[in-house]
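chain below, 677 aa
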Amino acid sequence: MKKNSLFFYIIFAVQYFFIINSHSLSNEWFTSAGDYNSLKFSKIEKINKDNVNNLELAWTYKNGFVPDKNSAFRNNNQATPIFTGKKLISSSMDGFVIAMNPQNGKEIWRTKIEQPSARRGFTYFEGNIFIPSGKGIYVLNEKDGTLNKNFGLDGLITNNKNSSSLSLVPPMVFEDKMIVAYINSVVSHSIPSGKINWKVNLNGSRVWSGISYDKKNEKLVFVTSNLVNLLGNTNVKDDYSNSIVVVDGQTGQTDCKFKDTIHDHWDYDMVGNPIIINSNNSNLAYGFSKTGNIFVVNLPDCKLVNADHIQKIKTDSLSPIENQTYSNYQIRINNPENLMDLEYELSSYLDYISKDNENLDYVKHRTRNSKFGKSFIPLSLDYDPIVMGLHGGPEWPGGSYDLTNNQIIIPTNHYPWIIRSYYSCCLKNKPSAQRKAQQYLIDLKHFNANKIYKNKCSSCHQKRKKGKYESEFFGDTYIPNLSGVTLTKKGDSLNSLKNFKYSHKYTENIEISDKELGLLKKYFEAHDKYLKENNLLRLSANWQLLLDKHGEFASKPPHGKLTAFDISTGKITWQIPFGEKFINNQIIKGDINFGGVLSTAGNISIATGTPDKNVYIFNSSNGEELWRTKLKFAGSSPPMTYQYKGEQYIIINSSGGRFYGYEKDFGDLIYAFKLRK
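prediction:
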């Protein structure tokens, strides 16, 4: 065994009673991740594995505005409430911050903040509440909810005027500083003045989940997204994307960063707040990736503890798409055990549905231009890669540290996506280009095809041929963009009347003749020639769920799991399907999830966020289900807990989902559970 590998095992072999320096070991839950170590763990054990069946509903509270299911505003509330010791603080989808009586949920005060506000949480510090928003960080008095005008400019702290001040995640506040993850940078402000001390520019990456802080060594740890523009980013400075990053909290100097996916074109972000575990002989930060990799960084020397457990996976280095370069390898970390299988094999699903011939035919047709079977398939105009993990393994809520059993518990998702690359109209820096291109189509009257398109195609593919794509949020509604269709090398539905009718078989019966099809083909050829000659085309891609004829994932379940791994060995201790759904009158275990998990000293783990709208409580030792109850809307953020006047409360933020599989009705409720007397 290599020296570094031996070091890895030695420092992992710590017991839970050595853990120190963690704010979540108090009764307060002062930031949405519980504390700055992002443990999502509570020492309160009044509710435990032996009495959890005695839980009952204590109260509910309606946060505020609930959008209609047909509203354009179809979001959800992803902010875990916080507990100051005196008040429970929540937020609403329509921009309110609310203080409640922690015993009965009665409203104490309510303050309006512009949207988006408290998108994924907020922070309490020394009598003030710090709320991220579209304009910066608002500071409210905990006592009465008024703006504390001693901070920043009349209660608002912002980035400089030349940078975006949009922030989605809770800031960290300590001593005389506030650390904020804005949309494109991480910034240290002096408080109360708001003066900028230092700034880390992320060069097109984002911090989606929040920052963790190692108080003992004064180190900030966060993970980053991929570049915003997934295509065309080969020549972009790419030094912070898809990485776990460690920054000196005093100076802003980047101590180290370790990249997960190189030249990411698939949307494999790093996700979740890093979990920092301080013991008497080690300080470790755990960072998670959608690829299932887990990075373990030693603090303060910033060494990657599990570097000896990294495997290089050979990939295709050149993309079939012009000017798109890929790395010739990607990494897989084997200790701690990887949480994801990124490879998709159609055969496993075909075996799963082998008795449904019509469904088999449908799935085979959907994947006729697809490439699958291995990880990190380059994007192409010739084929459509099928990939796993775009919503998962871990998602933005991350996991929790179960101190009782010395393990990390984390939910994951696992289902297939198709990535479709295409040319579309038009370049963003030419605002009049799309209007000119559309006018050119109208002028093609000698083809008599514009009328055909308007009468038989535009109701689905839209007037400007832009198509329709909603699969990420509300299902698999995918109608292709038709700009540049004749420039793609793969065959399309215009090649023959047979292919055309088959492509429209499962939507509606489109009546079209061979002659009309020929006119349409000339119509597109002329249009695309015009776009190409005028340099108006831009490269685009759509991410589409791979669903079967019945709207279910075209992969073998489970599609969601809850996993626990022992930090002393890096091995998975238990793994269970998480969430349920009914298919063909059968219960299928393991559904998608976007809520999160909380662990407590009562040897229980509370998980939520599945479309079945259940809250689940498991035995942290072995994953055994102990209790469940159904909410009106699916949980939408990690649970939290606190103790008030001798009683422990479990709090669930219930606002529904905005992803496929969830109900399309949304709410904005807070649920509180306690033990029955």
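The radius of gyration is 26 Å. The mean pLDDT is 86.
thats it, cya
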